[in-house]
Amino acid sequence: MAVQAEPVLVAGLIEVCRATIAENSDHLCALDRAIGDGDHGTNMRRGCEAVSAEGESLSSLPFPDAMEKIGLTLVMNVGGAAGPLYGTLLMEIGRELRKSNEKPDFSQVLKQAIDAVARRGRAHAGDKTLLDVLYPVHAALASRSPLGAIARRAERSANRTADMKAMRGRAAYLGDRSIGHIDPGASSCALLTTAICRYLGEHRPQ
Amino acid sequence: MIGKTANVGIVIVSHSPLVARGIADMIRQMVGDCVPLAWSGGNAHGELGTDAGGILKAIEAAWSDAGVAVFVDLGGAETNSEMAIEMLGLPRSALVSICNAPLVEGAVIAAAEASGGASLAKVVATAEELSP
């Protein structure tokens, strides 16, 4: 997948992500109340609104710069652990894209960025975090799955975190009591993936 | 401190502004003002949480060429502190350490150690001895 600077695409993606998080903010807070401190939806909404407020200037930037700036805006506004984790993901996507300016392989870029998120959170697959959605999404992308299949894989992966015992984050303090609840970070990640896939499917038929 | 090496700085990071400020007050009472000290508590909107930008400002406020030791409470405080240190950039980021130590006891004992002119490695090691 070649990635170019496409102002309309960036602006559209920012808007669908903002709208998705706003619609699901209460649900994400409810998931977080079960195993965390109950503010994941509020934090994510604040971050997405901050990005959206800068939407016009962001969408005029080259794509890698826009990704990096969005990442930094999330770090500064989401707070909690989700800010640096989502922020690292986007900032690394931006940096990796810039490094490989000639026809970057987005799947490779995403893998590097997900590994950076894992290092930042010192977490692994199976620890009941957003990584349990990001890795399967990458696998689906790498095997050239259609957008709809990538989205379904993200949703299934988020649901599967219910069976996992949390090893990182606030939920880890609960130990076995974290089992039976979907991880809020995995859930927001699946929601965003689904929204992005749907938008790309509608606006950029493959 | 003229003519001497500056003491290691101490930064307190908590999800709660009251906790962060309270610990900073304790340190000021116990070791005086010979240690550069700053705190960051709560998110950017003054609610419970942590804020990478605020932590970055605190590290800059407590900056010492001898280095800065950072004390954190729960998970997000550590992740955001790491992010802030990265944003500080090299070479300064190499002179900042997050201590694996209890927040109150760790910060107080580190400040006491720092006030005697100990190196960053020594300050961190002394605080981390408190960890089980």
From TrEMBL, chain A:
Cited Pfam families: Dak2
Key word DNA damage present: no
NCBIfam families xrefs: dha_L_ycgS
Superkingdom, taxonomy of origin: Bacteria
Lineage of the organism: Bacteria, Pseudomonadati, Pseudomonadota, Alphaproteobacteria, Hyphomicrobiales
InterPro entries: DhaK_L_YcgS, DhaL_dom, DhaL_dom_sf, Dihydroxyacetone_Kinase
Full protein name: Dihydroxyacetone kinase subunit L
Origin species: Rhizobium leguminosarum
Record SMART domains: Dak2 (SM01120)
Keywords recorded for this protein, A-Z: Kinase, Transferase
GO cellular component: cytosol
Domain DhaL: from-to ranges: 8-198
Single GO MF descriptor: glycerone kinase activity
TrEMBL record, chain B:
Catalytic activity: dihydroxyacetone + phosphoenolpyruvate = dihydroxyacetone phosphate + pyruvate
Keyword entries, A-Z: Kinase, Transferase
Enzyme Commission number(s): 2.7.1.121
A GO-annotated cellular component: membrane
SUPFAM superfamilies xrefs: PTS system fructose IIA component-like
PROSITE patterns cross-referenced by the UniProt entry: PTS_EIIA_TYPE_4
Keyword Transferase: yes
Gene Ontology molecular functions: phosphoenolpyruvate-glycerone phosphotransferase activity
Ranges where the PTS EIIA type-4 domain occurs: 7-132
A GO biological-process term: glycerol catabolic process
Subunit field text: Homodimer. The dihydroxyacetone kinase complex is composed of a homodimer of DhaM, a homodimer of DhaK and the subunit DhaL.
Function as written in the Swiss-Prot or TrEMBL entry: Component of the dihydroxyacetone kinase complex, which is responsible for the phosphoenolpyruvate (PEP)-dependent phosphorylation of dihydroxyacetone. DhaM serves as the phosphoryl donor. Is phosphorylated by phosphoenolpyruvate in an EI- and HPr-dependent reaction, and a phosphorelay system on histidine residues finally leads to phosphoryl transfer to DhaL and dihydroxyacetone.
PANTHER family in the record: PEP-DEPENDENT DIHYDROXYACETONE KINASE, PHOSPHORYL DONOR SUBUNIT DHAM
The protein's name in its UniProt record: phosphoenolpyruvate--glycerone phosphotransferase
Species annotation: Rhizobium leguminosarum
Lineage of source species: Bacteria, Pseudomonadati, Pseudomonadota, Alphaproteobacteria, Hyphomicrobiales
